[in-house]
Write a structure and sequence with these properties.
Radius of gyration: 12 Å
Largest sheet: 4 strands, antiparallel
Number of domains: 1
Distance between the termini: 13 Å
CATH topology: Alpha-Beta Plaits
Helix content: 25-40%
Shape: globular
CATH architecture: 2-Layer Sandwich
Number of helices: 4
């Protein structure tokens, strides 16, 4: 398993936190996520992602289905900053 941390902005933090889209989209791929919010109240959020491997993660982010999932959750794709475990 590979572990990543992703920080990004969303349109509505409460909507993003409550959304089942992450589990529906990533679950069948063997990817799990843990969600975090900025305690200062900004629209910045973070995920800890456990993925079978980086190739699975990268493939999951490609295509129309990934774009639709991000749009549903209000993710601002241009703000995504990924970090890999050192």
């Amino acid at each position: 398993m590979e572990t990543l941390v992703l920080v990004h902005e969303v349109d509505d933090v409460d909507h993003w936190l409550a959304s089942p889209t992450r589990e529906e989209y990533f679950g069948p791929l063997g990817i799990t996520t843990r969600t975090f919010r900025d305690p200062s109240g900004s629209n910045r959020v973070a995920l800890i992602v456990e993925t079978p491997d980086i190739a699975t993660w990268e493939a999951a982010l490609q295509g129309d289905a990934a774009a639709a999932a991000m749009k549903t959750d209000g993710v601002r794709p241009d703000t995504i900053a990924p970090f890999v475990e050192a």
